[in-house]
Amino acid sequence: MEIRRATDGDREWAAELMASTDPWITLGRDRAQCLKALQRPGFDLHIASAEKRVGFLLTHPHGLAGLPYLSSLAVSTDCRSHGVGTRLLTWFEDRYRGRARWAFLCVSSFNHRAQELYRRAGYLQVGRLDDHSLEGAAELIMRKRPPTPRWRFCTGS
Question: What is the span of the domain harbouring residue 90?
Fold first, then answer.
């Protein structure tokens, strides 16, 4: 699987995926709103593809308290439970390996499947924003320390 920077055509595809799946359905986001979110200045959209596009992630390098923030992650319905989400998370963490103390994300309180993915990957809930995106629901703030670099400096000894 390859993860690459998105093209304009990829943005259209990602907006369709967002608008057709939760949490965006429950949040009442249509395709136009999703496309607008994918075009926000400062955010980076990356696409996961094999023979076809299978998922995406939207990130901001300084999105929460000046630290890396995963804004959105989605996987095509037919590709779920095949490791795509885990691979996208790992790519996000590796991108900031050794450069940031923490990586952050938010997940909707009703999005149990995503919460489980993030917990399995080592993310811990550190906050809660009640009624933030939807009355009666919460956005759970989660963080993880990106892995340390895999290399060591030569000390000369």
Answer: 2-144
CATH of the domain at 11: 3.40.630.30
The structure's pTM equals: 0.86
Reference 149, options 115, 99, 78, 102; nearest CA is: 99
Token couple for 141: 């703030």
* pLDDT, block means (10 residues), the chain with 157 residues: 94 97 94 97 95 96 90 93 94 87 93 95 94 90 78 51
Instruction: Please give the Cα distance from 107 to 128 (Å, whole number).
Output: 10
**53 located within any domain:** yes
Domain count, the chain: 1
Token readout for 93 is 């963490």
> What are the φ/ψ torsions at residue 3 (nearest 5 degrees)?
-120, 125
